[in-house]
Amino acid sequence: MNTKIKEHRREYILAIIVCIEIAVLAYFAYRYGVHHVDSDDATEMALAEQLSREGGIMSSNWYYSTDLRVIHTQLILAPLFRIFSSWNLVRTLGTVICLCILAASWVYMCSKLSFGKTALWLLPVLLWPFSDLYYDFVLFGLQYIPHLAMMFCCTGLFCAIVRTEKHSRLYYVAWALLAFLNGMGGLRLIVVFYAPLWISALLSYIIKPEASIRKAICMPQITCSTFGIITAAAGYVVNGKVLPKFYTFANWEGTEFIKPDFAKLNGVLNDVLLVMGYRSERKIISISGFVNLLILAACIVIVYFIVSLLKNYKCLREDEQILIIFTGFSFLATIFVNIFTNQNWASRYLILPMIWFIVLASVYIRLN
């Protein structure tokens, strides 16, 4: 018994740290959540309560002001409302469950990555409130946890398929099902995940000296990513053509290309800092000022990581190469929507592509 504890001591320490983070976040949700909740949070709770009465996962009696909630927090909160009537208790328990799902999805992804043992140790970063935006929309608001968890799970499935593990057919079925459901929820994950992954898988193979069209057709990373984006697109067709007959929600049907506004790039740079936790109007000689300096230093370190990884690209493993390219294209796709379309923009939209910086850090640590 003592020998097993010593062998897995690091894993136990990591688990304890994660449990402490989840417990603290749950306490703050229970103790101070009522003072921190905003209209978006309240709307999600009201929707979950209504769904608990109707007995479904989507409601035809609800106007969804943004994307249709297919795989979202209502899958957790609505069943809790059937058991408890207290909004505060439902919110707290929902926070614990959602954070556990987020952590579990990261662990699953790490179990399929070639550098997963390194990435696993950065799990506490995922549960750390490093910025107001991240806390409001992920750790407390919970709104982005479904998207993050789906991306991590799908990345794990993708890696399992590429490595042609046992039960690969089951992986393909799960990959297709999740892609279809994610497409039914709107274009968001198609833009920031499926399209960048497809481009990355294709590009990572094309730049190899031995690349050929015949071989490309049989490469699992290309066939899997292509299948994923096609299935997700099919889900979005259902979102745009079928679901509006039964549900009222906003989608991307009215999104149009506009005259490029490159002045928005300055705003994007500011938003990057906001997601990282930077706060303006803080005195230099203060705790907040010191934190801002650390955040600026972290930005420099991330840039250094990226440059270093690109220089050593040929030394990286296949999944590492794909994920490095993917992170870049996911980030660029998000910025593209802001500059070239009339789609509304908010700083929080950068959370999904920027979360992959943690993965880049894992690759760099593994390499060094």
Write structural notes for this entry:
It is a single chain. The protein is mainly alpha-helical. The protein has helices at 2-7, 9-36, 39-54, 74-83, 87-112, 116-120, 123-126, 132-139, 145-162, 168-184, 188-206, 213-218, 220-241, 264-276, 287-311, 318-340, 351-354, 357-367; strands spanning 63-64, 248-249. It has a two-stranded parallel ribbon. Helix 5 (87-112) packs parallel to helix 9 and helix 11 (188-206) packs antiparallel against helix 13. The chain is globular. It starts with a helix and ends with a helix. The relative contact order is 0.10.
Task: Record keyword descriptors for this entry.
368 residues, mainly alpha, two-stranded parallel sheet, 18 helices, 2 strands, 71% helix, 1% strand, globular
Quick summary:
By secondary structure, the protein is mainly α. It has 18 helices and 2 strands.
Regions with little confidence, pLDDT below 50 for 5+ residues? none
State the helix count.
18
Order of SSEs: HHHEHHHHHHHHHHEHHHHH
| Secondary structure: helix percent | over 70%
Draw up the topology in text.
Elements: H1 2-7, H2 9-36, H3 39-54, E1 63-64, H4 74-83, H5 87-112, H6 116-120, H7 123-126, H8 132-139, H9 145-162, H10 168-184, H11 188-206, H12 213-218, H13 220-241, E2 248-249, H14 264-276, H15 287-311, H16 318-340, H17 351-354, H18 357-367
Parallel strand pairs: 1-2
Helix pairs in contact: 2-5, 3-4, 4-5, 5-9, 9-10, 9-13, 10-13, 11-13, 11-16, 15-18, 16-18
